[in-house]
Amino acid sequence: MEFDLNETQSLIQKAARDYAQKVILPQAKEIDATEKFPAEILRGLGDLGLLAVNVPGVYGGSEAGVVNYSLAMQGVAGACASTAVTMAVTNMVGEVIAQFGTEEQRQKYCPKLASGEYLAGAFGLSEPGAGSDPGGMLTTARLDGDTWVLDGAKQWITSGAYAGVFVVWARTGDKTTHPGGKGLTCFLVEAGTPGLRIGRKEDKMGLRGSNTVALELEGVRVPASALLGELHGGFKIGMMALDGGRIGIASQALGIARAALDESVTYAKDRKAFGKSIGEFQAIQWKLADMRTAIDAAHMLTMRAATLKEAKKPFSREASMAKVFSTENAWKICNEAVQIHGGYGYTREFPAERHLRDVRVSMIYEGTSEVQRIVIARSLLSE
Q1: What is the pTM of this model?
Q2: Alpha-carbon gap, residue 122 to 160, rounded angstroms
Q3: Which of 201, 330, 353, 355 is deepest in the core (most CB within 10 A)?
Q4: Where in the sequence numbering do the catalytic residues fall?
Q5: How far, in Å, CA of 168 to CA of 70, rounded?
């Protein structure tokens, strides 16, 4: 299966890579070291149309499609994975609102997300006791006159302290009549809404420039017009968003892995041992060969999933395959990059250790590797 890029795709790939290399990469080390949220960089991505790549142009998006989104994500992630994950979630929020929102919601929120007026959008799905199992969600929403009242707690909220709008999932159906995910509904909650509080900021192993916080909702009142999609239709929205998000995370992992490989090739050419460059030793050559082979295979899987989604064909299984393969191999590639760099790979003088820390979570968020294998297996067994 060939994935030759058309002119538009080539231009977007080049624009993302150029911005990543010229603007983002020089700041990546500082972003990681200081946990600096990349606000100005995100505004620049908005100017390039990369915060709403798959959102229709009438709502401020680029309307460039899923393949272009994947290519852009790879370019940004190779420079700074913290920036990439923030970009990914904002794109997901805009796409969900564009797909499931009312015309009023689309007009109100999508242009602000696309332009960078909102520094970010955020998802409020995971909870302290409900990550891989959204059916275990405890956050509730009850109708009080013409307003919904939300109460509960959310966990692992990317960009929570900087988001302009949150997509929040809550239980609206009684567990006896609407068990599991059947009673979940989505709501749009704006930053600054009374009762919405930003909780503890997580001290993470990697992606240290991305903001990850807890979210507390206590008597949060939103109008009836804040309901996103259908009543009790939240589980469907969540699963569809996660399917698309998995293409984004596979792309992010690919970008990190490709950067780790490029840096390893350069180091292998420059580093001398026993009178010659270490790249002349077969042990290093085999590592580099395996790294490149895995990257190409992951790229093919990811492009297949992106192409299917863009064509509006079923892609859930393919997205899970792309995510589990890309992320697990990216982890191996980044680990090998540290090994190739030797002692220097364990220091912050080189970016190899940052890539290793950043890529680790890709096997956890947007559905763990174990969840991806469940999705793939169930699909096979249901045929």
Answers
A1: 0.95
A2: 6
A3: 330
A4: 366
A5: 25
